[in-house]
Design a protein that fits this description.
Number of domains: 1
Distance between the termini: 7 Å
Radius of gyration: 15 Å
CATH superfamily: Ribosomal protein L5
CATH class: Alpha Beta
Number of strands: 5
CATH topology: 50s Ribosomal Protein L5, Chain: A
Helix content: 25-40%
Shape: globular
C-alpha cells in the first residue's frame, strides 16, 4: 500500500466582496477532515484590494503536524473522483514543481456543496501539498504521487 508523506498542506482561496464569507469558509472546510484538532489547523485571512479597487480577502489554511497531514491526505484522496484522479495522473508533471509541491485547484462552488471537483478556472480553492520524497527531486515526488493515486 503506497502511502504519501507530506511536510505540510496549504489551502488558499479568495473571498470577493460579493461573496458570503461564511459560505467560502464552508467550502474550504470540505477539505478539512473530521478528527483533526482545531489546534492543527491554522487559518489566516488578509484583506487586500482587487484590480478595480474592490475589497478581497485572501484565506490561507495551513496544516503542519504530521498526524493531521496524514489525515488530510487520506481525506483528500477519498474526495477525488476516478475522473479527477485520472486527470491528475495525466497532468502530474505540470502539477508538481521543482521544490516538490503538488498543486491542485478545486471548484469553490462545488466545494461549498461538499464536493471536490478539480477545476482550472479562477474561482477555486487551491491545495498545495509539500510532498516528502527521497531524494527530494521533482521526479521522485511525481513517482510517489503517481503510486499513491494508482493504488
Amino acid at each position: 500500500m503506497a502511502k504519501l508523506k507530506a511536510h505540510h498542506v496549504r489551502l488558499t482561496t479568495f473571498i470577493q466582496a460579493t461573496e458570503d464569507e461564511d459560505k467560502v469558509l464552508e467550502a474550504i472546510a470540505t477539505f478539512i477532515p473530521d478528527g483533526i484538532d482545531d489546534d492543527d489547523v491554522k487559518v489566516g485571512m488578509e484583506e487586500t484590494t482587487g484590480f478595480f479597487g474592490n475589497p478581497i480577502k485572501v484565506v490561507n489554511v495551513e496544516i503542519k503536524r504530521s498526524k493531521a497531514v496524514r489525515k488530510f491526505l487520506e481525506h483528500f484522496k477519498d474526495l477525488l473522483s476516478e475522473k479527477d484522479k485520472q486527470y491528475l495522473l495525466e497532468n502530474l508533471d505540470e502539477k508538481v514543481d521543482e521544490e516538490g509541491t503538488l498543486y491542485v485547484r478545486f471548484n469553490k462552488q462545488k466545494a461549498y456543496l461538499g464536493e471536490a471537483e478539480i477545476d482550472e478556472g479562477a474561482d477555486v480553492v487551491q491545495a498545495r501539498i509539500k510532498v516528502q520524497a527521497f531524494p527530494m527531486r521533482k521526479e521522485a515526488v511525481v513517482k510517489a504521487v503517481r503510486e499513491w493515486l494508482e493504488e
